[in-house]
Design brief:
mainly alpha, Rhopdopsin 7-helix transmembrane proteins, 2 domains, two-stranded antiparallel ribbon, 15 helices
Length: about 475
């Protein structure tokens, strides 16, 4: 496919980029008589091989065999030297290793530590699972196919390879979108209840169901074609390349443009709220603590989203340009451009664990625990504490003072009262908003005007940090 790994256009373009015109010509000359749609696809395939002037006039009619041409006149310009293959193999191998192990560690950190099981982190588990799966089951297979233009993995895996990448990327991007919407609701409208664990699981399940439905045509129309000396895996649409192109434009809109637009709007509003609404002067410690924690989470997720957008943009541009200007498939360096754009898109699966480790202290503590067997990794007592149950967060005032301000009982002696038996009366102090415990009194009025993003009865500092 044109927009996601190993989906239709990938298999098409990969085979187009690395096709051996000699083998194709020999197969067609031996009497291959493809149907109309398949003949058009094979015609593009032969064009991609950059045939010589004499062989480019084959024409490949839909129901007649192509005239034979001497193989001496056919050249495969996409054969790469061994050193270049080794470099590309190393680059793709690093992506797969870091993405798979990094995301598996992220999943372990969240599921194995009760303190990490928040709404946001459940979506991060879904995101990590999608990225690890795509790296494990898609990246190297597509790289091998793009490099050799030979499908070694059978018909069933051909269908899976064209189906699963769209599913995984859809799940990844909409997990990020769900996090953005959840952050928006928690910060802009904190008085509404947060998603429960059950509701979060329902949202994640719905994301996967929609992903399966979107990718199903890729599985339905996938096929392999066995030719003399060559096996191809591709998606043959009933109405030909135009239908194929339309489908993948829809996919690009649904898995790239629309979710990025939603996240751009939500994070812009959240950013303006968090970075533009701080109360000047001496305000409560809890306000500053929550504001700082919320900013860290939002900043981390913005970096994740921007990284995804940058990594996938070149590949989407590549697909659109090569689909519109098909002569680009005959360009001498088009295979290198494809491999580079494909590598950048796949590398998006390995950056998230690195971002979490660098920008979140609890994930950093979790990675230290995972790699504590390394001689240069030391796990401190503070790191151990970060992953345990919620810690007490001290403020400037003592905990006793904070409690007595929230709910205190004061004994007041009134000498003017004639009844000595009632000389002592208990008056309950007016309860204060617990979200402002520890705030200075002179700023309590101004602080109340910004309570919409300071705290909520459904959130805590522990959830954001």
């Amino acid at each position: 496919m044109g927009s996601l790994p190993a989906a239709a256009n990938w298999t098409d373009r990969a085979s187009m980029a690395g096709a051996d015109p000699g083998n194709l010509s020999a197969a067609l000359a031996a009497g291959a008589a493809p149907g109309a749609a398949e003949g058009e696809w094979l015609h593009l395939l032969v064009q991609a091989g950059n045939l010589s002037a004499s062989s480019s006039a084959l024409g490949l009619p839909a129901a007649s065999p192509a005239p034979s041409q001497p193989r001496a006149n056919l050249t495969n310009q996409f054969v790469q030297p061994s050193w270049r293959i080794a470099l590309w193999s190393l680059a793709y191998g690093v992506v797969v290793a870091v993405a798979v192990f990094g995301n598996l560690i992220v999943i372990w950190i969240i599921l194995a530590h009760k303190r990490m099981r928040t709404v946001t982190n459940y979506f991060l588990v879904n995101l990590a699972f999608s990225d690890a799966s795509m790296a494990a089951f898609n990246t190297l297979v597509n790289f091998i196919y793009a490099l050799h233009s030979e499908w070694y993995f059978g018909a069933n895996y051909c269908r899976f390879q064209n189906f699963f990448p769209i599913t995984a990327v859809f799940a990844s991007i909409y997990s990020m979108t769900a996090i953005a919407v959840d952050r928006y609701m928690a910060i802009i409208d904190p008085l509404k209840p947060r998603l429960s664990a059950t509701a979060t699981k329902i949202v994640i399940g719905s994301i996967w169901i929609l992903a399966f439905l979107l990718a199903f045509p890729q599985c339905l129309y996938s096929k392999i074609k066995v030719m003399p000396g060559r096996t191809l895996c591709y998606v043959q649409w009933p109405e030909g390349p135009k239908q194929h192109f339309t489908y993948h434009i829809i996919v690009i809109v649904l898995v790239y443009c629309f979710p990025l637009l939603v996240m751009g709007v939500t994070y812009t509003i959240v950013g303006i709220t968090l970075w533009g609404g701080e109360i000047p002067g001496d305000t409560c410690d809890k306000y500053h603590e929550q504001l700082k924690a919320k900013r860290k989470v939002v900043k981390m997720m913005i970096i994740v989203v921007v990284t995804f957008a940058i990594c996938w943009l070149p590949y989407h541009i590549y697909f659109i340009l090569t689909a519109i200007y098909q002569q680009l498939n005959r360009w001498k360096y088009i295979q290198q451009v494809y491999l580079a754009s494909f590598w950048l898109a796949m590398s998006s699966t390995m950056y998230n664990p690195i971002i979490y480790c660098c920008l979140n202290k609890r994930f950093r503590a979790g990675f230290k625990r995972a790699f504590r067997w390394c001689p240069f990794i030391e796990v401190s007592s503070y790191d151990e504490l970060e992953l345990k149950t919620t810690r007490f967060h001290p403020t400037r005032q003592s905990s006793l003072y904070t409690v007595t301000r929230m709910e205190s009982v004061t004994v007041v002696f009134e000498p003017s009262d004639p009844d000595n038996s009632k000389a002592s009366r208990k008056k309950r102090a007016t309860p204060r908003d617990p979200s402002f415990s520890g705030c200075s009194r002179r700023n309590s009025k101004s602080a109340s005007t910004t309570s919409s993003f300071i705290s909520s009865p459904y959130t805590s500092v522990d959830e954001y940090s």
